[in-house]
Amino acid sequence: MTADPLQRDLLAALRHEIAVCLRAFAETGETALIDLGALPLGRADREALDQNLGRGEIFARIDAAGWSEIWETGFSGVWRVRHNGAEHVAVDQIEIGPCPKILLSDPRDARAAARRLDETTLKPLSGDAA
Amino acid sequence: MRQLETLGEALERRGFSRRAFLKYGSYVASLMALPPSASEAIAEGLAKARRQSVIWLSFQECTGCTESITRSHAPTLENLMFDFISLDYHHTLMAVSGEAAEGARAEAMRENKGKYIVVVDGSVPVKDGGVYSTIAGVSNLQMLEDTLKDAIAVVAVGSCACFGGIPAANPNPTGAKAISELAGGKPVINIPGCPPIPEAMTGALSYILSFGKLPDLDGLGRPKAFYGETIHDRCYRRPFYERGLYADGFDDEGARQGYCLYKLGCKGPTTYNSCATLKWNGGVSFPIQSGHGCLGCSEPDFWDRGGFYRPLPTPLAAMGPALAGAAVVGAVFGAGAAVSNRKHQQTFAAGGVEKRPAANDQEKA
User: Reduced to 3 states, what is the DSSP secondary structure of residue B250?
Assistant: First the structure.
């Protein structure tokens, strides 16, 4: 954890909030989102937080309008979501739930994909004519 | 982009998934200290919106505001905004010039009558019939009046457009005026700064596109999300201020220790802006972090406020002792910032409007 006692207190408060949200998710299924950008945390504090939360079984990388990194922490149901901007982290969040929403395929995207797939399927493959 | 298609359809055609909207929604919600859950509403709002026509007018200005908003050139999250708007006129950036440029403005006004947003950087000279600044033979005042006639709102970017800025500095030889004084009742958002932080400009525009209304504004017409706290409120040097540790010169021991720049004229305590949190150049730094006090550039008449290096007229003796000890100060500062953010988020969630003292009240306090 960070050496600064003040920041240590802040991180302890944040961990308490995560614990409360995680308990609510475990008991009622209620999901939660904490925006770390809204808190007075420096890079060292975030590193200390991540070290404390640890790493779980899943890591994902998204390429959509820039790179994003998502991983499950050592606490099942607690996810770290980080969207990178041009030169720095643009969004840094903790999502508590079964799976971060951004990983799910949107039904509208799926409909568009189904249309594309139909078009491809109806087209003869290059080797069919022979 | 086809005029009638939604932004969702347009981005889908280009191979983007809804994830791009969701990410951008998270980005705007984070920037504007909205509840994180607002990101989905922003994403949905943007996906359903049509590309927003924007007419950008540049009057008595230095082009610094345009430099600021276009500083990012990689295809990233931050500049996805440029896919959401159609910049139909900007005489510095557009390829055409002369009659063709003015024709583009007229066409955009005709095709998007009652729906376009006007962005203005620079103040408007009104003295002597406005002869001190003209474009295509038309005075700035006339062009502003003509263009605003069928606009839905006007966004004044930069301190010149918001408050008159440097052109209006004493003795204001051209009779420079702020856009809000000439807007004829149109809704005005002020995004001051010299230049403004790019995220404040794109954040405000994104909010309008997503929710179809203006964001909450303070008494000076500035979005509270970006101008709700002073630089001093969120300055990392604040604990030194509270402990009475100041730099007395730019190269003394205090300066080397990173002490508070209050005595060197820093205007952070009376300046509302997000420099201390959003910072500049992709979050790298901001003036105080680079060793120079805040100039107060997002406040009215900052140029005429008695000198950049003259300390604010607040007695230092009133500070420090009452809050002795960095532990107490830091805890209060940290908790205060968090509480302030949460309060803003809760207010937004409740659909209400926050009230905070005007800038002048803060100064008096």
Answer: coil
* Contact at CB, B334 and A102, closer than 8 angstroms: no
Interface of A with B (CB under 8 A): 4-7, 9-10, 33-35, 37-40, 62, 64-66, 68, 81, 83-93, 101-102, 105-106, 108-109, 112
Cβ separation of B77 and A39 shorter than 8 Å?
no
β-pairing, B151-157 vs B188-191, is: parallel
In a domain, A103, yes or no: yes
Q: Do residues B190 and B162 make contact, with C-beta atoms less than 8 angstroms apart?
A: yes
The alpha-carbon gap from A54 to the nearest alpha carbon of chain B, in Å, equals: 23
pLDDT of residue B304: 93
Q: How far is the C-alpha of B235 from the C-alpha of B352, rounded, in Å? A: 28
In a domain, A127, yes or no: no
- Longest Cα separation, chain B: 65
Q: Is residue A99 included in any domain, yes or no?
A: yes
**A128 within domain boundaries:** no
Q: When comparing pLDDT for B208 and B317, which is higher?
A: B208
Ranges of H-type helices in chain B? 7-13, 18-31, 38-48, 64-69, 81-84, 98-111, 140-148, 159-163, 198-211, 224-227, 238-242, 253-256, 275-278, 326-349, 359-364
* Cα–Cα dist A82/B287, whole Å: 27
What letter would DSSP give residue B216? P
- Closest alpha carbon to A93 in A104, A80, A84, A76: A80
Tell me what percent of the residues of chain B surpass a pLDDT of 90: 60
Note the pLDDT tens digit of each residue in B97-113: 999 999 999 999 999 99
Smallest CA-to-CA distance from A109 within B267, B20, B307 is with B20
Domain region containing A44: 5-121
- Is B118:B53 a contact under the CB 8 Å cutoff? no
Which pTM value belongs to this model? 0.80
Please give the tally of structural domains in chain A: 1
Q: Which residues pair with B217 in a beta bridge?
A: B223
CA distance B20 to B77: 8
DSSP string, B266-321: --GGG-B-SHHHH-BTTTTB-TTTTT-----TTSTTGGGSS-TTSPPS--GGGSSG
Place of tokens 């376009």: B116
Identify which of A10, A64, A90 has the shortest CB distance to residue B16. Answer: A64
Of B17, B331, B341, the CB nearest to A64: B17
Instruction: Quote ipTM for the complex.
Output: 0.85
How many residues are present in chain A?
130
CATH number for the domain spanning A116: value is 3.30.1370.140
What is the rounded distance in angstroms from the CA atom of residue B134 to the CA atom of residue B144? Answer: 11
Which has more confidence, B74 or A82?
A: A82
C-alpha dist (Å) from residue B227 to B12, B164, B262: 35, 18, 20
